[in-house]
Amino acid sequence: MQPCSRDKSIAEALIAAHDGDVALLYIYLHSRGGEDLEQAARELCRTMGEINAAREKLQRMGLLPEGGSRPAAAEQSARPAPAEELPEYETEDLVRRSKEDAGFAAIVTEAQKVLGHVLSSSDLKRLFGIYDYLALPPEVILMLLNHCVGISQGRRPSMRFIEKEAYVWANREILSLEQAEEYIRSSRQRREDLGRIKESLGILGRELTATEQKYISSWLDMGFGEDCISLAYDRTVTNTGALKWNYMNKILLSWDEKRLHSRAQVEEKEGRRKAAPSQAQAQDKPIDMEALRAIVEKM
Fold first, then answer.
1. Which of 77, 76, 69, 74 is nearest to 32 (CA)?
2. Of 40, 70, 83, 278, whose CB is crowded by the most CB atoms within 10 A?
3. Are 236 and 244 in contact (CB under 8 A)?
4. What separation in angstroms does the CA of 194 have from each of 212, 220, 229, 236?
């Protein structure tokens, strides 16, 4: 008998959580329909601390309502956005999981290669938070670590940098190798686009600021290519004498409202407007100096 889509999505979420206590508690609550966590701890041979930790993780995954002990329906199983700060972990928990969990042990080994040193206690807690709290699968975290090396511009990334990028992946629900590969590909393409436009704007010898990156990314998201952005840059410098980001942004926003997203479209629109001269312009003919001289001589 084939499992329904609801059961399959929940099973995939529990597998991605890579936590046996979480899966065990979900199955127990789903099958028994009870709400007594103390009884669950006794029957599952777990401490109340382990049961409460599993319950909180099920709630973060959207598989258990806040404040309740009954599994959530499939319609309510969307992952909520994680909190901005990782929880604190006890050193004993980290040591135990490092020994018992082969997936986490492999992540620790790869992280030490990426960072170039043995992980400190703080680094280990951050890494475990990415694994346990953000619930990214081990193979996805391995790709995350190597992706952070690629975007660190030749420097070794810090664990804080890796944590920030992990939050991006968690919020985008990147939970499979296919999703990770697609994100890395699109991220690489965006960096290449930013680099080309940076050069076309005459910005050399430094990196783009965060605000400059936001401007350019918003223009790319609107559908503008390098040619149209370069045209807006030319208009900006011609009219203001410098690269003024807000002025240039207004030009591109006006083109976006008119659905003009290429240089050819802009020039065609402006060409039609210039092709219709006013009546005053039609009557403004050059003066015939010879005729004027002949009139003066007669006078």
1. 69
2. 40
3. yes
4. 10, 9, 11, 19
Closest CA to 41 of 59, 54, 31: 54
Which contiguous run of DSSP H or E holds residue 298? helix 289-298
Residues 248-285: b if buried by 16+ CB within 10 A, e if exposed: beebbeebbeeebbebeebeeeeeeeeeeeeeeeeeee
* pLDDT bracket for residue 18 (50, 70, 90): low
Torsion of CA 205, 210, 212, 216, to 10 degrees: 110
Cα gap 288→299, rounded to integer Å: 17
Q: Which amino acid is at 183?
A: Y
**Nearest C-alpha neighbor of 166 from the set 211, 135, 122:** 135
Q: What is the pLDDT of residues 92-133, one digit of tens each?
A: 778 788 788 888 889 999 999 888 899 888 899 999 999 988
Packing angle between helix 102-115 and helix 138-150, nearest 10 degrees?
10
**Residues in CB range of 31: below 8 A, 6 or more apart:** none
Amino acid present at 55: R
| Comparison of pLDDT for 186 and 3, the residue scoring more | 186
User: If DSSP states are collapsed to H, E and C, what string results for 229-289?
Assistant: HHHHHHHHHHHHCCCCHHHHHHHHHHHHHCCCCCHHHHHHHHHHHHCCCCHHHHHCCCCCH
| Cα 60 versus chain centre, distance | 20
The pLDDT assigned to 4 comes to 56
State the Cα–Cα distance between residues 182 and 106, nearest whole angstrom.
23
Any idea how long the chain is? 299
The packing angle between helices 210-222 and 245-257, to 10°, is 10
Residue 172's identity, in one-letter code, is: R
